Amino acid sequence: MSKPHWRPARASDLPAISAIAARIHPGLPERPDVFAEKMRLYPEGCRVLVTTEEIVGYGLAHPWTQHRIPPLDGFLERLPDDADCLYVHDVAVLPDFRGGTSRAYVAAIEELARASGIAMLALVSVYATRPLWERLGFRPVIADAELRAKLASYGDSAIYMLRDLADRVTRA
Fold first, then answer.
1. Cα dist. 18→2, 80, 110, 136, 139 in Å?
2. Mean pLDDT in the chain?
3. What is the b/e burial string over 25-40, where b = at least 16 CB atoms within 10 angstroms of the residue's CB?
4. In degrees rounded to 5, what are phi and psi of residue 82?
5. Least enclosed by CB within 10 Å: which of 4, 12, 92, 119?
6. DSSP 91
7. What are the pLDDT digits (tens) for 124-149?
8. What is the pTM of this model?
9. Where are the alpha helices (DSSP H) in the chain?
10. Domains and CATH numbers, the chain
């Protein structure tokens, strides 16, 4: 079995993405059409983790506006013209293939953000993954009432997090 690597997601990957999402996020279901829309709107941010035999993970990200969390299982309809962050919607990897793979996806998204002139990454941490995201440079945002309301669909443990790339962007 080859070492897993990330490649651009294709429409034909949707059944595998949906199956992994259902397995990793049973309490946070999303329709395949929601994943398909993200892939259509911003294919550059959508990747799958593959071995020679199968797809073992996926990552979905798209331009968005800070502090405006897209509703879980909701359609974006269009990307904002004033996007100021790349929103990492989800990174899901089957347990046997974890260990550095999320770091590799985030590194690719960071490059994409910089190439697009975007200096911030954003995400919602679920299922007590905050330590993982903190190791990757994300910091929790203190949620006001409006942000807490937006986080509600992501479950009780949801935390909105940001990673500022600005200091590195200016030195690049």
1. 23, 25, 25, 25, 28
2. 91
3. beebebeeebbebbbe
4. -105, 35
5. 12
6. E
7. 999 889 999 999 999 999 888 888 88
8. 0.92
9. 14-24, 32-41, 101-115, 130-135, 145-151, 166-171
10. 5-171 (3.40.630.30)
pLDDT classification of 49: cutoffs 50, 70, 90: very high
Cα separation, 118 vs 134, whole angstroms: 20
pLDDT-based confidence at residue 155 (cuts at 50, 70, 90): confident
Q: How far is CA 99 from CA 16, 40, 96, 108, in A?
A: 20, 29, 9, 16
Contact of 69 with 88, CB cutoff 8 Å: no
CA 9 to chain centre: 13
Q: Do 63 and 86 meet the contact criterion of CB atoms below 8 Å apart?
A: yes
Q: Which amino acid type is present at position 49?
A: L
Q: How many residues does the chain have?
A: 172
Q: What is the dihedral of CA 121, 18, 104, 106, to 10 degrees?
A: 0
- Give the span between the Cα atoms of 71 and 84, in whole angstroms: 18
70-106 pLDDT per residue, tens: 889 999 999 999 999 999 999 999 999 988 899 999 9
